[in-house]
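Could you help me review a protein record that somebody else here produced? This is what I was given.
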Amino acid sequence: MITPANTSDNRKLAKARLPRMMFDYFDGGAFSEQTLRENTGDFQNLHFRQRVMRDVSNASAATQILGQDAALPLVLAPVGLAGMLARRGEIQAVLAAQKSGVPFCLSTVSICSLEEVARATGAANWFQLYVLKDRSYSEALLNRAHKAGYSTLVFTVDLPKLGVRYRDVRNGMNGGLSPWGKMQKLSDLLSHPLWLWDVAIKGKPLTFGNLADAVPSGRNPEDFKAWVDQQFDASVTWKDLDWVRQHWPGKLVIKGIMDPDDARSAMDVGADGIVVSNHGGRQLDGAPSTISALPGIVEAVSGKTEILFDGGVQSGQDIVRALCLGANACLVGRAWAYALAAGGEEAVSRMLENFRYEVELTLALLGKNSVEQLTPDDLI
């Protein structure tokens, strides 16, 4: 047993505690996972410009994200099926986010419904929506989110088709297991009795809470997955964002931007912010890392819309690197998923406190007192 000090440690604990199928689903990427690796690896090519003998006694990570006060420039990114990582996992995560003073974004395909999450906290949470063919159901979800008090909609636009994730194929997440494969899957589940008892049994219902009306006969995530897979709309264009604006009165953030021209298009449709994201390397393998794509997008739209960053963030230092290159804040997904699986709400809170301290320590060693003071000159 280790006392987790960073994201890598939480990942090791998560791998030990989760059935392989579950761990690989959250940990893996598309095809050969080249983009997944480069998302994290390319951060290491960015070196800090250390400065000394500056008064940094007031170094603080506090900022605002889309007008919302935050203890650090971080949002807990939407993570589908988080309720499979720990008992009622989204509830544990949102409570940690509220206590730590950062926004939490709920996935469309969460286990806990948006109403259940809203009841757990009085914070102005965010809600993520995919492009669904069933516009009437999308409208119903938007109405539910607004009624429940969600302040910001994160509209994900990089799933016209679902990426091919080889780990999920091998583990039977998409079905199609042979009889021997089914026996191996059962053996793996039985070898994780604590997860079976705490999550699979005591954590019920393990259904997509936001989609219960769409699949009323659903009893487990597999029942909902077929409906969701059929709902990704490959015909959607920027014109469809007018429909979203008509049905959503709050802040609108477009997630899945990797090209300067697309960033300009998002700005043209009135987005309050964009998320530079390649879906964590889970969609187009061979796409560049998000940190390498960030500067070009910043040059195209900086100052005209808020720029959020997603992909490969493993520490507070990675957050600082992204902010040096022009991001206003970062979305963090896998890091909080690992922490949740490793130790529930307490571990997510510890992760967020570690990230805050790492941001403030790095600011001080750069000779800065606030994240707003960061510039590309702070990297060499």
Notes: The two ends are 38 Å apart (CA to CA).
